[in-house]
Design brief:
Blueprint: E1 7-11, H1 24-29, E2 34-38, H2 51-72, H3 76-93, H4 100-106, H5 114-131, H6 138-149, H7 187-198, H8 205-219, H9 226-240, H10 251-255, H11 259-270, H12 275-309, H13 317-327, E3 330-331, H14 333-340, H15 344-356, E4 361-362, E5 372-373, H16 375-389
Antiparallel strand pairs: 1-2, 3-5, 4-5
């Protein structure tokens, strides 16, 4: 296929001082030079792919567009819930797992789970990616990563990395790592080249997105958050390429069925085989659409069930609260009042009505600062996650 492979160069290792407690074996392994990646410049690289790879990517792109159109004409709450599921799935690829309830609690600053707070930060990163979809440049990518880590690790944001990073092999040195991204002095030029590649219009969109994502992960331009930022870039490029217009289709959920295959496809890309990551992203798109359709169907059935059993006139605060619960299944009185533009008294009356009809349950035992959740919505979201994690065979 002729795609340039990643090379490697020897770099001297400036190791940690003797205060770091490691075994003699680790110290022996950390001696001498280490091999850092030297990714190729791809802005003008010529891509040649087999017809079947292009056909599958084209089919996957059409399915993403069809699903985006279907959901876009239903209601705004589904856009919010799909954004949250994409953010949660992308976080889970990095083993940051959390229940739907904890994520929703984190949005109210009431979660006990640190992972849930990180998922909420990833929602901010995804939003930034969509907002900046038509301005993909160094500054917008830095903004995506800052939205992700600005609260938890601000020292790692605002710029590309100025240190060597590596993947696997422990934290003492890069010598035993499974992959060592390029030395930080190469990052600015590589990112400038990637931005130029992202502006190309001569490639099919899903192919373009897959290669840009793989190149981003190979460069690994930040000290932390590269995986989640790189998957936010996927959403940004799908939007700028007009594959999607309305929602963040949860492509990361499609990757969860076989994260090993996903990581292997990135390795294959570095060896000069871009077909692997294109196939991985195409298959993830098909899975995401199927799972996303099931989630939307489940949520619509839940909403229809509420309307059938709760006596509330159209346009009332209680009926408007149904839609809010689809995108925000954990609420308090202040949130409902602010979102619906009503008094806290009216908000509380609507909450009480939905508690009475078993739409809502109180989450905590407080007399003040009470929180309620919609169990059916949370169950649908957790079921979505379970389906995404279910391993399915990949084509040989």
């Amino acid at each position: 296929m002729g795609w340039p492979a990643t090379g490697f160069e020897q770099r001297p290792w400036q190791g940690s001082d003797g205060d770091v407690i490691v075994s003699r074996r680790q110290r022996m392994l950390a001696r001498g030079d280490y091999a850092a990646a030297v990714p190729p410049f791809i802005a003008d690289a010529v891509l040649r792919l087999e017809a079947d790879v292009l056909a599958v990517a084209d089919d996957a792109g059409r399915e993403l567009t069809r699903f985006d159109t279907e959901v876009g004409v239903i209601a705004a709450p589904f856009a919010s819930i799909l954004l949250r599921t994409e953010s949660a799935s992308s976080s889970e690829v990095e083993n940051l797992t959390s229940s739907a309830k904890q994520v929703a609690l984190a949005e109210l600053n009431a979660a006990s789970s640190g992972n849930a707070r990180m998922v909420v930060a990833n929602v901010r990163a995804m939003n930034a990616a969509l907002d900046l979809a038509f301005e993909i440049n160094e500054e917008s990518i830095i903004s995506m990563q800052k939205a992700l880590l600005g609260d938890n690790a601000p020292e790692h944001t605002g710029r590309f990395r100025d240190q060597q990073v590596w993947i696997g092999g422990g934290s003492f040195s890069p010598h035993s790592a499974s992959f060592v991204p390029p030395h930080h002095d190469r990052v600015p030029a590589l990112m400038a080249d990637l931005i130029q590649f992202c502006s190309r219009t001569d490639l099919p969109v899903l192919v373009h997105v897959a290669i840009a994502h793989a190149q981003f992960e190979t460069i690994h331009p930040f000290p932390d958050g590269n995986g989640r930022t790189g998957r936010a870039l996927i959403q940004s490029m799908l939007r700028s390429g007009e594959i999607t217009r309305n929602v963040a289709v949860p492509v990361s959920a499609g990757l969860l069925g076989s994260t090993e295959r996903y990581f292997d496809s990135l390795t294959a890309y570095r060896r000069g085989d871009p077909a692997a990551i294109i196939d991985a992203l195409s298959d993830a798109a098909f899975r995401a659409v199927g799972n996303g359709r099931q989630l939307v169907s489940d949520l619509r059935a839940i909403s229809d069930g509420w309307r059938a059993r709760v006596p509330a006139r159209a346009g009332s605060t209680a009926s408007r609260l149904w839609d809010l619960l689809l995108k925000q299944p954990v609420i308090n009185t202040k949130t409902v009042a602010a979102e619906l533009g009503v008094s806290e008294t009216a908000a509380q009356a609507a909450i009480d009505s939905l508690v009475e009809h078993e739409v809502l349950e109180q989450t905590n035992d407080y007399r003040r600062n009470r929180i309620w959740h919609a169990p059916e919505v949370l169950a649908a979201l957790d079921n979505f996650g379970d389906r995404a994690r279910r391993a399915t065979p990949w084509p040989a």
